[in-house]
Design goal:
262 residues; biotin biosynthesis; Malonyl-ACP_OMT; methyltransferase; Rossmann fold; 7-stranded mixed β-sheet; S-adenosyl-L-methionine
Length: 262
């Protein structure tokens, strides 16, 4: 890697996990779709030339993007996700690849859209440098990513059970800005939004996380629930986060970011 590593990620395992989730991903991706729609709403009006949906997943946003550009690429690390994306009929050229080593030529894109994909990078600054490399002068990037503090309720509940990490690490806002600036994006626009979801039971949240393939990927993680007894303890520990409306709250901190290459 050219830059400091933020986390150790087994890319092959990550691709398998998301690929295995591909067929039922959309049924569990309410939050991901909401964030992507919010990001899409920030896309300036008009037609774009060559565009990329980075971390396109099942291709949920490919049709909307295809209507706004002349040539669209969809890239994902997981072949299983790309197989689902191919069924969208968007006309996008689908590529299997890594955000930290984009299989695209220098200065070949006018627009990059990426929603909730870059938080899985081993070295975010390397990915941002790749975005800078493939953009043409004046090219734009719109991306969303998770910040530290996301799923803090689940993290605290796990601490009460076994004191071990079960939640992925995410960049803080200051570190995100520093990584972007070091990658060549001098004036990033970063909007941070809290996102609060409600679940009737903890099992519903856990099913969503498993259903989208977003279980622990950081080094040293404690995978799985480890038996019914620990799940019972986790459920009990999470009860203190039940809201007045009767739902259990799961909170995220989302960064909506706009970049432009000089």
């Amino acid at each position: 890697m050219l830059h400091e590593r933020f986390q150790a990620v087994d890319k092959a395992q990550l691709a398998r996990r998301f690929g295995a989730a591909a067929r039922h991903y959309d049924a569990h991706a309410r939050f991901q779709q909401e964030v992507g729609q919010a990001l899409l709403a920030q896309l300036p009006q008009g037609q774009w030339g060559d565009a990329l949906d980075l971390g396109c997943g099942t291709g949920f946003f490919l049709p909307a993007l295809a209507s706004r550009c002349q040539q669209l690429h969809g890239l994902d690390l997981a072949p299983g996700m790309l197989a689902q994306a191919a069924r969208r009929g968007s006309g996008a050229r689908l590529l299997c690849g890594d955000a930290e080593a984009l299989p695209l030529a220098d200065a070949s894109l006018d627009l990059v859209f990426s929603s909730l994909a870059l938080q899985w990078c081993e070295c975010p600054q390397q990915a941002f440098a790749e975005l800078h490399r493939v953009l043409r002068p004046g090219g734009r990037v719109l991306f969303s990513t998770l910040l530290d503090g996301s799923l803090w309720q689940l993290a605290q509940a796990w601490q009460a059970v076994d004191g071990k990490p079960h939640i992925n690490r995410f960049l803080g806002q200051t570190r995100l800005r520093e990584a972007l600036e070091k990658s060549g994006f001098e004036t990033p626009i970063i909007e941070v939004r809290p996102w609060h979801l409600g679940y009737g039971q903890l099992a519903e949240l856990l099913r969503d996380l498993k259903g989208i393939g977003a279980s622990q990927v950081n080094e040293g993680g404690q995978e799985g629930l480890g038996g019914r007894a620990r799940l019972v303890r986790l459920t009990q520990a999470y009860e203190r986060f039940r809201r007045g409306d009767g739902l259990l709250e799961a909170s995220y901190r989302v960064a909506l970011v706009q970049l432009q290459r000089a």
